[in-house]
Amino acid sequence: MNVDELDTADIVIIDVRDEYAYLYGHIPNSINIPVDKVFAADLPKGKKLVVCCRSGVISGEIAEALCEMGYDAYDLKGGYVEWLRRKIERADDDVAARVEESIRKKFHKQLFGKFAKGIVNYELIKPHDKIAVCISGGKDSMLMAKLFQEIKKHNKFEFDLVFLVMDPGYSPENREIVERNARLLNIPITVFKTDIFENVYNIQRSPCYVCARMRRGHLYNKAKELGCNKIALGHHYDDVIETILMGMLFGGQVQTMMPKLKSTNFEGMELIRPMYLIREDDIKAWRDYNDLKFIQCACKFTDTCTSEACKTSNTGSKRKQVKELIARLAAEDPEIEQNIFKSVENVNLSTVIAYKDKEGIRHFFADEY
Question: What's this model's pTM, rounded to 2 decimal places?
């Protein structure tokens, strides 16, 4: 079934992606039943079932199996990505203006105010900086680009921006969505291509971690080639507190995601995170208010990879577990998230068993007891 055939009352759209991908963005009125649960689900037999996966790769097999079980099932050609591409294609020309107005007015306090506060508090921008604003195509980096454009208008001091998109091996459909959204939001992107996805495809242990490290290196290299001295990433407040807990629970260490960091491999380069104080729920609210649709993960292997590495990096990810843990704790005590954030600002070295200094030398409390 084609995307254009969805506007009928006698169909039920079954989205078989994982819950996190579904919550990030989905076709209106679709039902989320992850692929490992769809065959055991109680599905209606009186209507057409349209199976939607990420890009139409596995939906055909699922629809065929459902037909063998007696259902009137079809696969959605192109999947969610194709639906998303069509939606962006039909968007009007006033989107950028409306988005910018929402940043200045409705979301000024939650987004622009915290963006500016983070830049000032952590001294992220200096006069004459040239910053590569790194855009993955998701909600966080796209918002970061718009916030940079907005703060540039204030012109308190001179600095330059390059809106940098690295294509690590996107499928044509994903790359088109990133480029269309950039045009829609009036973000003048510079795109360069790498073959990172191909290089990490057969890595069984932590492929997403390896991919992220390789992408970081390519971004530094390209930014330096373009004359930039900083790269900006779209990590937000929730990423920070999740990282703190992940380090403690899974890494046995106390550490945080720093608001800025000097590169050890690219001399003179620095990484900054200007969305450090912005909450993810506020980013989602801005996205939904403006009816914007972004890609979640542009990895072209998501639909087909069945290795344990992919499973671990997707629905069973440690970050997802920690995100859910924080949400449960915060539901009981609203100050939990703020306390996690502040915990790494209030470290008293006299009350810890051991710590490492910036040279990596370990100091044990009993040495000077």
Answer: 0.78
